[in-house]
Amino acid sequence: MANLFYTRYLKPPPTIVTAGKPFNIVWTVANDLGEISYWQPLTICCRLIPAATSSSSPKTATHLTLQHHGSSPASKKKSLCNMVELQYDPVKGGGVMTTSLVVSGSSAGSRTVGSNSNSVTFQLVLELAGSQYIEHPVWTRARLLKSQYDDDDDDDAWVIPVFSLPVHLATSSQQHGKSSSVRDYERRVTIKNYSNDANSTKPQQHIIRIHEDASPSIGSHIWDCGMLMCQYLAEQQYQQQQPHFDRILELGSGTAIAGIYAAHMLNPSIIYLTDLDDTVPTVRHNVSLQQHKAQSEKSIVVEELEWGQTDISNKCVNLVLLTDVLYNPAFHDALIDTLSKLVETNPKLKVLLGYKPRDQGEERTFFDKIGKLGWQWQMSLLPPAEIYWISKQ
Ligand SMILES: C[S@@+](CC[C@H](N)C(=O)[O-])C[C@H]1O[C@@H](n2cnc3c(N)ncnc32)[C@H](O)[C@@H]1O
What we know:
Number of helices: 6
CATH topology of the largest domain: Immunoglobulin-like
Number of strands: 22
Strand content: 25-35%
Largest sheet: 8 strands, mixed
Shape: globular
CATH superfamily of the largest domain: CalX-beta domain
Number of domains: 2
Radius of gyration: 22 Å
CATH class of the largest domain: Mainly Beta
Bound molecules: S-adenosylmethionine
Order of helices and strands: EEEEEHEEEEEEEEEEHEHEHEEHEHEE
């Protein structure tokens, strides 16, 4: 079983940096809860890439160089390019690394966008360095770190990269005011769509961008279950095992990584992405980020929905999507209440659940409860998660 580890900005780069002036990033490599750091030293590549924007003509970030602040003139010459290598050390500072960087260069050669002809933006990616690793087919630029012990898959780890928000490069002569610090950063998943052209072996490909942040709110993080659900949907699509679901409802969307992926992959005529009121802005923001519009884009509806409380009598859906929503057994009755009301409206309702056992699996009481109500399920293992198809018929 491969573990999932995330490069994570604890302090991302600011949204404006001045050419030639140093700025700090604080970063780590940790699991989805953030409570376990990756256990061995790693070389992480910090790479400068052109910023993705919601504009159809992205700005290029050519002629920019990235360096460690304070690197010697000799090593400066060597590192005149768009990446630097950073050493991650789990022992030093508990794996919390602080790095000082400098970006230099000019906007010469950049394409202009909008009214600001000198504008250059870039993003800084933290990813596993080296070309020898297997790349994940769905989680953009994630790489598999094999265990040193060949027969022990339990120590394999996927290292999932983090992208900063777009950073604007100001020249020292420009007055851009104070550079603003942010807590947000970006993850990406790749959609490969094989279904549109039966004669083509080459899939159409585009990227789903999802923002998360370092705040303690559970709804603003990417969790393993969401990543694994994207992988599961992609595998089903590739094997052409996916029945068509026309009306989808996601409960507890969080960053909506699974729901937005499903909107693009399954092309329903309507998909509701729902969560508690404090998380709805995160969902809305992530829907707005997508450059490639899902066919169902006009029909992505973001709504507040509290399990067991919100009236859902107007919702008739044929698929409910759930990822990482069983973590608190105190919410199970409310969740089951909402599912039961949905199945009253459509007895053929299917529920697709991504569940990752935590706390010695005490959340499994959910299955005892739905079993008593006559629900049935089929499980596929997608370590470290389990994927369930649940229905009442
Ligand atoms: C661990 S997060 C998972 C988020 C997302 N599904 C994912 O896999 O990345 C659990 C989500 O369930 C939502 N949630 C928790 N209790 C809820 C309730 N009673 N009603 C609606 N949403 C709830 C939280 O706000 C949070 O976004």
